[in-house]
Specification:
The chain has 2 helices and 7 strands. By secondary structure, it is of the alpha/beta class. The protein has one domain. A hairpin with a 4-residue loop joins strand 4 and strand 5.
């Protein structure tokens, strides 16, 4: 995946995740996006030599990034995490913030991605906002 493709996938996935979240939340979600990135969220077997691993990323969380900062962080040696879960976390009058929960395995092989699809979100998996404990299906909630 090229850097430009990765940027397009991040932006497209963000829009899809925003539209999906609108089914759940009362909040007005804007298209000025911020991102919180949680690195190495997978429990990886380091013996898989088809992947790159970055053990120094363990426990690292980067907050309030813009899209280009996300790309700078996650696009490494022409490789990206094999999966990145994206969901709306919060909103303000000025921006919508997403969580990006990232695998610790990096690849340039599209066959290794968990979320191989044709809607433009690979390697991103679109997830719902975190549902409240008392969530009732069909009832919208505030973030």
């Amino acid at each position: 995946m090229t850097r430009d493709e990765f940027i397009l996938h991040l932006r497209e996935s963000s829009l899809i995740a925003l539209k999906f979240a609108e089914h759940f939340v009362k909040d007005k979600l804007t298209t000025d996006f911020k991102y919180n990135v949680i690195l190495n969220a997978s429990n990886d077997d380091l013996n898989f030599n088809q992947f790159d691993f970055y053990q120094e990323d363990n426990g690292i969380i980067k907050l309030n990034l813009i899209d280009i900062e996300v790309i700078d962080l996650l696009y490494r040696k022409n490789k990206v995490p094999v999966w990145i879960n994206i969901n709306v976390l919060k909103s303000s009058r000025k921006s919508t913030t997403f969580n990006l929960l990232c695998a610790g395995r990096f690849t340039d092989n599209k066959e290794e991605f968990y979320y191989n699809n044709k809607i433009g979100s690979t390697p991103f998996g679109i997830k719902s906002p975190e549902l409240p404990i008392d969530y009732s299906q069909g009832k919208k909630f505030s973030l």
